[in-house]
Specification:
Blueprint: H1 2-34, E1 37-39, E2 45-47, H2 51-64, E3 78-86, H3 104-120, E4 122-130, H4 137-147, E5 154-158, H5 159-162, H6 190-195, H7 212-216, E6 219-224, H8 225-231, H9 236-243, H10 249-257, E7 275-279, H11 283-291, E8 297-299, E9 305-307, H12 312-326, E10 331-333, H13 338-350, E11 354-360, H14 363-366, E12 374-377, E13 391-392, E14 398-401, H15 409-440, H16 446-457, E15 459-460, H17 463-466, H18 477-483, H19 489-515
Parallel strand pairs: 3-4, 3-5, 7-10, 7-11, 13-15
Antiparallel strand pairs: 1-2, 5-14, 6-11, 6-12, 8-9
């Protein structure tokens, strides 16, 4: 009996030893595969480490970073009145929540706001306004400043709306504001902030990861893995196409051409059929344009913008986009409406009737109940020589400002820095790492995570896009061309150029001599 027991113990020991060896070799094999040379987003070959390991290291580093506001900075229970304007009603919940509900993003935002208030001894009083429901950010701010009534201490406005007050002398200049340090990692959109102003001595607007609505409104595309599998093969090839730098307008055009199917059998293309993608000539056109590296402006040595849009590249891009929209049976141009972006196109994508859904990160929330798996990729590049993929921050992203009449500027600046820090440390990881990367996309592929990071990190905008409504619509000229089914960029630009240039010069003069 003892001999049998010894044999059994020996067999158990051999089994455990064998299992350990297998696990060690498996781990080594996994490390070898994850360290293979891959193409970076600038098409250069790099020795890449496991993205999940990098994410874990980043998370550990983030946890160790301390709040930059000294612990003894307190403001004696000051009430901070925050005018909070959003484009969609549901976007209020990504800044101002009333309590914990057991949902990670909501609860993390609540805890962030509570922590900032407790740490700095302040209280928040949110005045929430929804533009679509009749809120008028410009009117409210101008009336308040003009009357000197000091109604608000902090302003959160929609980009296209609040920048129009830049030359009205209503915002405090934050260029040398206390506590705010734009070199910190929780202000990742510094290049975007520079596009929001003229010159190097003025800073009216802050934006970036301080608000989830900034991330939610970054442009991206979704691809349906089931539809891809049925038409092209392994869906992971789409990730490789992106990482190899070959995801371009021409490639999108090629893939869509084979996708049309007359699902309802009526013998004509309509909204009920299958397509490679559905588009509108309104806001989606902005993202195709600026993601392709088309620039409307550049800056001189003093940070003053000038037009560069009338170029061979823009002419060529216009022809490519027009051909995609109107000469490709696999592309359906739907009526331009919010319902198209947020209901019609996502529904067709969810029902496996589209290969691609072009939109924004927030579309992933609409697709939460989708049964078919999907992946997230950037908008396509102009061509393979474009250095990196770009993601346009849509013109409804939130910007943070301080009114001229504010008597609590020091407290507000401390709040902005502390809130940005806490968002970087807790809120963004909750949404970005857990909700966006895992719960919404349901994708565990390392390449998928890498591409989402790429979209976020390559966020961009253009001065003419930001100030379009002051510049004779030059920043949105591609919308007009596509809506008119017109590929003649040069002729259209010639008609608006003189007035756009005059408006730009007036804006520069007003900004530097009065607004600054």
């Amino acid at each position: 009996m003892k001999q049998i027991k010894r044999q059994i113990l020996l067999l158990i020991f051999i089994f455990i030893l064998s299992l350990s060896v297998i696990l060690i070799f498996s781990a080594c094999a996994k490390d070898d595969n994850s360290n293979k040379d891959i193409k970076n987003d600038d098409n250069s070959v790099t020795d890449n480490e496991n993205p999940k390991d990098e994410a874990a290291e980043d998370k550990e580093e983030t946890t160790d970073i301390k709040n930059p506001i000294p612990e003894d900075v307190k403001f004696g229970g000051e009430e901070i009145r925050i005018l909070h304007c959003t484009y969609f009603e549901n976007e209020i919940d990504f800044m101002h929540v009333d309590g914990e509900i057991g949902e990670i993003v909501n609860d993390t935002i609540y805890k962030r706001n509570l922590k900032v208030q407790n740490d700095l001894s302040v209280s928040f009083n949110f005045i929430d306004i929804v533009l679509q429901n009749g809120g008028d950010f410009q009117r409210m701010v101008k009336n308040s400043i003009k009357s000197g009534s000091d109604d608000y201490d902090m302003l959160i406005g929609v980009q296209y709306d609040c920048v129009q007050l830049a030359t009205s002398n209503v915002y405090a200049n934050l260029i040398n504001a206390p506590y705010i340090d734009l070199d910190k990692p929780w202000w990742p959109a510094k290049n975007i902030q520079e596009e929001l102003v003229i010159g190097k001595d003025v800073l009216y607007f802050l934006g970036g990861d301080i608000s989830l609505n900034f991330i939610r409104n970054m442009g991206c595309a979704f691809f349906n893995k089931q539809v891809y599998l049925e038409n092209f093969g392994n869906p992971d090839e789409m990730y490789k196409l992106v990482l190899d730098g070959k995801w371009t307008i021409d490639k999108l055009d090629e893939m869509c051409k084979s996708m049309y199917k007359d699902l309802n059998g009526d013998g004509k293309p309509d909204n009920d059929d299958q397509y490679g993608c559905g588009v509108i000539t309104n806001n989606l056109t902005d993202h195709f344009t600026y993601a392709a590296g088309v620039r409307a402006t550049e800056r001189d040595e003093n940070g003053v913008p000038y037009f560069i849009m009338n170029s061979e590249k823009t002419v060529s891009f216009t022809e490519k986009l027009h051909s995609l929209f109107y000469n490709n049976e696999g592309v359906r141009v739907f009526v331009s409406a919010e319902e198209t972006n947020n209901i019609l196109i996502p529904d067709k994508f969810r029902n496996n009737e589209l290969l691609f859904d072009f939109g924004w990160f927030y579309i992933s929330e609409i697709l939460r109940d989708m049964k078919t798996d999907y992946g997230i990729i950037p908008f396509p590049k102009y061509d393979e020589s474009q250095i990196s993929y770009l993601s346009l921050a849509h013109d409804i992203v939130p910007l943070y400002c301080v009114p001229q009449t504010c008597e609590k500027t020091e407290a507000v600046c401390a709040i902005l820095e502390s809130m940005a820090f806490e968002s970087y440390k807790t809120v963004v990881p909750a949404y970005y790492e857990i909700a966006l990367k895992l719960k919404y996309t349901r994708d565990t592929d390392d390449d998928a995570f890498k591409i989402i990071d790429m979209i976020h990190d390559n966020c961009t905008t253009d001065f003419a896009y930001v100030y379009n409504y002051t510049l004779n619509n030059v920043g949105l000229i591609m919308r007009e061309l596509m809506a008119a089914k017109n590929a003649d960029f040069a002729s259209r630009y010639e008609k608006i150029e003189t007035k756009a240039q005059a408006n730009l010069e007036k804006l520069i003069d007003t900004y530097l001599n009065n607004g600054g």
